[in-house]
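For the sake of transparency, this paper describes our internal protein records without simplification. The tokens are whole numbers drawn from a learned vocabulary of local backbone shapes. One such record is reproduced below, unchanged from the form in which we store it.

. . .
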Amino acid sequence: MVLEQSTLQVAYTVSIVTSIALCGILWQHRTKTGAAVLLFYVFTGVIWSGTQLANITIDDPAVSLALLRILFLGIAFGSVALFVFTLQYTRREQYLGSTTYLALSMYPIYLFLFVFVNPGGYFFETVESDPTTVIGIVPEYGIAVVPHLVAAYSLTAASVLMFVDMYYRTPSLYRGQSLAVIGGSLLPVVGALPVVFGIVDFDPVPIVIPIASGLFTIAIVRYRLIDLVPIARDRVLETVNDGVFVIDRADRLIDVNPEGRRILRTVDAGDQNYIGRNFRSLLGDADLQQRYDAITASREETTFEVSVGTSHLQVTATPIDDGRSRHVGWLAIVHDVTERKRREDRLERQNERLDQFASLVSHDLRNPLTVANGYLELARETDDADDHLEEVAQAHDRMQTIIDDVLTIAREGADVTDPEPVDLEALAERAWNGVATDDATLDVHPSASIRADPDRLQRLLENLFRNAVEHGSTGSQSKPPDDSVEHGSTSSQNAVRSDDDLTDSETVTVESGLVVAVGIDRDEGAPGMTLSVADTGPGIPPDQREQIFEAGYTTDDDGTGFGLSIVAEIARAHGWSVRVTESETGGAQFEFEGVEPVPEE
């Protein structure tokens, strides 16, 4: 194929002007990652087109040879620039160290020595004048041209392969842009093939280079891929604390960051190769699937909160358009608000306690205060003042007890922020020794270490032990009446059992006297443990078990109704849940779930 000289001159001139224009655009965006290297690559295209234009215009063999030498050097710099740009663009800039630059510099240095010096005629064996050719000369290349061809095509092939690899690793929403850069890297190779196979007698590469450069420039300027995808993806999505999910309109998950994978593992225990799978099926929970169906049906930005296991998540789902008002998928941002919800719950509990305190102060303290005032008036009006003043003193004592209990609830309700290892057996014995236990006995089995606030845990056990001793039978087998059981009392009746009837987690009872057992067991299917305090008494009637932890609730006329309310607040402060059940002997059993064990060394 032969083109007229004038046609080639026009083509090369257009190529030069286009490349210069692209250089101007890239100069304006030179602060973007990769733009400076791409600018240099485009400028080598100006050199390539300029030397070829000069070659077909100037009829001087010496000048043509000099321009040909410059052209080879431009090819070397262009190949290196394309390779460096590709490393930056495909998130491999970590390889661009001093060693890499030194290795790449060997290629243009080699060409400079052999092209311009041509030692031994190894690069240009002969150069003959031939006016019938486009550039006016016919060079015969020597063996030194082989390393040049290997280097040029190897760098270009490596660039193409890296772009292709990026295409397959890039979410489908961005693959159109990836194809553009693949095309840009392939065009110079395709343009050189007609020359290699002798199809044309002119060099078409300078003509296609501006097209390739234009595709790269559009990728940077128009789509801002260098800023967002893929260069900054690792720096943003891979390190962001929120879960990020990209879902196409066929409900397939096409991208997810590490935090998103962690969230998915909480709802999907199967294969963790999530990419390409149906996103709805990954949700597992029927409520979550219904939420997803409602969101995708509306195609509007939606924000909602949902509980998944022990976590509380805030989900923002935003529809994705392709810039032409066509819906192509969804972007879901999942923010873990568990800590915020815990703070809200703590604040709510504090407000509830404030309401309780107000009610207690206005109601519970009013009664003994009224009694004290009444007896004080009688003391003033009669001569028998001692008996009336004794009643006043008892009313004041009751008020002091109520005040102490209210203050205890306020203090013990604060969250435990720094738990420490506690030997359960030793702590239980200290709590037992701090209570008047009469002839009751304590058994702790098995011994274990847990993480807790030792002072507050001791108070919890003291309250349970005190209720058991005060309201349990310690000298007979008779069962006390139900209406004498204080709220949540661990009061109990004796139980006589043989050693053969016992398991490792049960207590050894005695024939006379109350027995209180403290045990710890592993929770089934959960990381925590369950702490239990059980007795051998009559237990708590089922109809009272929902009320026993309410502040002020009691079935005992002498009780304040705060004992188990304090126990419940201490449990909540540790993050434990508490419930009352029936023990093996029919007595009361308090179970605290979520207790953190101390790992064995």
Remarks:
- The chain has four domains: 5-221, 239-336, 341-412, 420-595.
- The chain is about 50% helix and 15% strand.
- Residues 223-232, 473-512 have pLDDT under 50 and may be disordered.
- The first strand starts at residue 124 and ends at 129.
